[in-house]
């Protein structure tokens, strides 16, 4: 079938219509389809994906599908991710940089005819509640139906987003191709992709171009690419514009309310609502690197009586100052793209319950009765499975049945503990911000920062053992400041400065900053802290601190709990001591790693962070 690509654009936005035409001329798809986000469209596209062999319909879960990727396309590709700012310095030392002109030239060749034989889907989407002040719009052009249906789960996608684009005029342009054009008569494969990959961002022109991968983090461009890399640049620019205005003596006049005329934050953070028995709810945001526990903490089932957790978001937070000077956060997403392995009744029952239907599972294992399974879903594996590579699998098999970065894509609204206000367009006021990562050694269970600046210092020094969420060696320790290393769309030294600026905002009522580590290990390599639901004990201490009801011990690295509730926990005195103390010798070694890390940012590193470093060294003696 060959339908003319000259379908009239169903939009009055001429920029959008013109851009779609331009991309179609470049990529030469067989068909163009504008996604409206309807039920009918979902049914048609998921049926198509089943026909094509990309999806297997799950007999055991309504309206749910199973997909396995090409074995080479299972995670984000950080070494193929580029920030294409005009100046290399603006991408900074932690990002790969290609000059925009050169990148455009490469793409001019690479994207030429790359959608031949395929349908080009035009996917309008809104990040954040439809029509919200903090929300932002985008359009993803993609030649993957898998991406189009995933975007319907992960964002507010379709007609209503398109109408908002027409009202507001501006939107972020995102182009995605799997990079696998089909010659006439050539048969498609279930998971088309290319060995050539580029995940490129143009922060100045607010564009995203992604080539060669179908994996969520590389292909669902509203998520990491937009809501973190592009949005972090938008958030910083808003603050820079205010500062420039102030120095010219014309602070903010004429600026639209939507810009708020001041910097905001686009962060790799879950948002949760915590209600103590006393009743006053608090909202907490937490940044951990990929596959370090955000989704789990966001859906935590407290083990301590009377405490309640509800979910607002599990991966990304956009925060702006409200009129009361507090930081208000929204979850820009509409779904969860979560790590499947390790998600089970015992660890994250709320996630398991979210997945009852309307979900897409990628690179998990398939049971013989048409359901999904992965390591950790149940204690005992089924006697027989089809593994993520399509092979017959039994408990005796050598490899795990699911890929360690296997994922579920599921609507947030299905989470049994989703907070009623999760779609409140004005966001929720944040009382505490947590940073953390995987650290087998040195780092205590929880540390309270001494000040906002000290908290920024803690964030800048987040280090974590690498996980399967990105290509590379698992277990290797790396600095991952603010859990944003792979996601900051500009110079990370400037990003630290932006955080310090946020703290200097007049009238700011700032959240308190904490550092947590659920992943401390014993000499025998087992986790000391039970984690998961027991993390509620740490949240309780934090809320009690905010309320002035819990005691802390000053240490050289910050304030540690004097009275953590460990009642009923099976932890030895020695284990508790390990979790809740600071070994000066070990910390002198930790501190010794900081200068080399800071020096990579050169003159972009704010002097306040060197001052914090010197103060730490002094305190360590
Ligand atoms: P995210 O990618 O940051 O959202 O991380 P997830 O919440 O999906 O968790 C990633 C992995 O870490 C999963 O296998 C979890 O089971 C595991 N995990 C999460 N929280 C904890 C915890 O408190 N303790 C331990 N030991 N593992 C955890
Ligand atoms: P996450 O990221 O592991 O932080 O959920 C998803 C991704 O890998 O793109
Ligand atoms: Mn997650």
From TrEMBL:
PROSITE patterns: PEPCK_GTP. It is found in: Cytoplasm. The active site is at 292. Gene3D superfamilies: 3.90.228.20, Phosphoenolpyruvate Carboxykinase, domain 1, Phosphoenolpyruvate Carboxykinase, domain 2. Substrate binds at residues 76, 215-217, 290, 405-407. One of its GO terms (molecular function) is phosphoenolpyruvate carboxykinase (GTP) activity. One of its GO terms (biological process) is response to lipid. Pathway: Carbohydrate biosynthesis; gluconeogenesis. It is an enzyme of class 4 (lyase). Mn(2+) binds at residues 224, 268, 315. Residues 19-236 form the Phosphoenolpyruvate carboxykinase GTP-utilising N-terminal domain. Binds 1 Mn(2+) ion per subunit. Its EC number is 4.1.1.32. One of its GO terms (cellular component) is cytosol. It catalyses: oxaloacetate + GTP = phosphoenolpyruvate + GDP + CO2. Its main location: cytoplasm. It comes from the Bacteria. Its cofactor is Mn(2+). NCBIfam families: PRK04210.1. PANTHER family: PHOSPHOENOLPYRUVATE CARBOXYKINASE, PHOSPHOENOLPYRUVATE CARBOXYKINASE [GTP]-RELATED. Catalyzes the conversion of oxaloacetate (OAA) to phosphoenolpyruvate (PEP), the rate-limiting step in the metabolic pathway that produces glucose from lactate and other precursors derived from the citric acid cycle. Belongs to the phosphoenolpyruvate carboxykinase [GTP] family. HAMAP family: PEPCK_GTP (MF_00452). Monomer. This is Phosphoenolpyruvate carboxykinase [GTP]. The gene is pckG.
